[in-house]
Amino acid sequence: xxxxxxxxxxxxxxxxxxxxxxxxxxxxxxxxxxxxxxxxxxxxxxxxxxxxxxxxxxxxxxxxxxxxxxxxxxxxxxxxxxxxxxxxxxxxxxxxxxxxxxxxxxxxxxxxxxxxxxxxxxxxxxxxxxxxxxxxxxxxxxxxxxxxxxxxxxxxxxxxxxxxxxxxxxxxxxxxxxxxxxxxxxxxxxxxxxxxxxxxxxxxxxxxxxxxxxxxxxxxxxxxxxxxxxxxxxxxxxxxxxxxxxxxxxxxxxxxxxxxxx
Length: 262
Hints:
Elements: E1 9-10, E2 15-16, E3 21-22, E4 27-28, E5 32-34, E6 39-40, E7 45-46, E8 49-52, E9 57-58, E10 63-66, E11 79-82, E12 87-88, E13 93-95, E14 104-107, E15 112-113, E16 118-119, E17 124-125, E18 130-131, E19 136-137, E20 142-143, E21 148-149, E22 154-155, E23 160-161, E24 166-167, E25 172-173, E26 181-184, E27 189-193, H1 195-200, H2 205-219, H3 225-238, H4 243-255
Parallel strand pairs: 1-4, 2-5, 3-6, 4-7, 5-8, 6-9, 7-10, 8-11, 9-12, 10-13, 11-14, 12-15, 13-16, 14-17, 15-18, 16-19, 17-20, 18-21, 19-22, 20-23, 21-24, 22-25, 24-26
Antiparallel strand pairs: 26-27
């Protein structure tokens, strides 16, 4: 029995694994590739040059791979790439990339994307993230692994959010967020380390203590960013069990382009 509902419209040029399920009234465009085990619910539109990996679940009424919301886009064959094992809920909008960046919007593996989430053009989202309802990313935003965006969080274009960061509900984010940091408010402010998230992911007490010490250098000691980076380098050598986390924070300070939330 076919796993494509008779009312679905799948372009003959689309490449779908034989195990892919497509629900009623969904539309799959000619430049779409979908790998094994992925389920596309009813009334989903997947278009553009879109590649989707294995075992994803798309709920109803999503718009996947539509044109960027960018006046500079002139129809170039830019892309959307989605990894494996993602849960993508109702009414999401994922746009293609633009030639002003790498030309691709990416979503990694094992992400939980709730209803009404928007991933704009050229966003780069890692793996194991959680986006609560109505979280919104403007263009060119980068989000690291295991980051969490609470409901109605809005992120300005070109911002970077580090791994394991936590963005609070209704937060208006216009600057970069280092790894492990919890931010909230409008405008956003740093509130501490995402300790509960780190415990749930198996970070040890020495690792968490090292990250908390790094946070204090950045946020509590009135240091310039250059002074904070020097202090982090000293801690990295002094606290070998926490070195990876401290290095991640120090490296992030070197790539932050919009200034960090303070």
